[in-house]
Amino acid sequence: MISIGKPEVGASLCDHLGVKDCSNFLFADPENKLYNDLELNKGVDVTFFNPATPFAIKDRLFKKDGMKRLNEVLGKWSGAFYIPPKREQAFNQGGTFVFQGERTLFAHYDESTGAHADIEAVVKTARSAFNPLSPAL
């Protein structure tokens, strides 16, 4: 996992969330190099004012146990407040990618706030890349 921010802030966040062995899989990108190279969506218009944002949030809330899961996630963020190294990074949208060497197996650019990749599709892609006996993509 790669995130904007400084390595020490990432370590602090992992401690706050109780994520074990976080340093084995969390990498910091304080200069925004990877975000820029991947041309991820950014800007306040995409982050907050994109019409997809309320629909993404609605979809998450109305899934089975959606409100329960939202409360669990928000509860973990209580007391956590992290500011990106650069002001404009606050308006970066993320993405989810699975690579095998230089080959991109899965690419999802978050369209707006809350519009994340289907985690089951991500895991299925990653598993099949590392286990040739897994079902086809």
From TrEMBL:
Domain of life: Eukaryota
Pfam family, one: AhpC-TSA_2
InterPro entries, sorted: PXL2A/B/C
Protein name: Redoxin domain-containing protein
Species of provenance: Leptocylindrus danicus
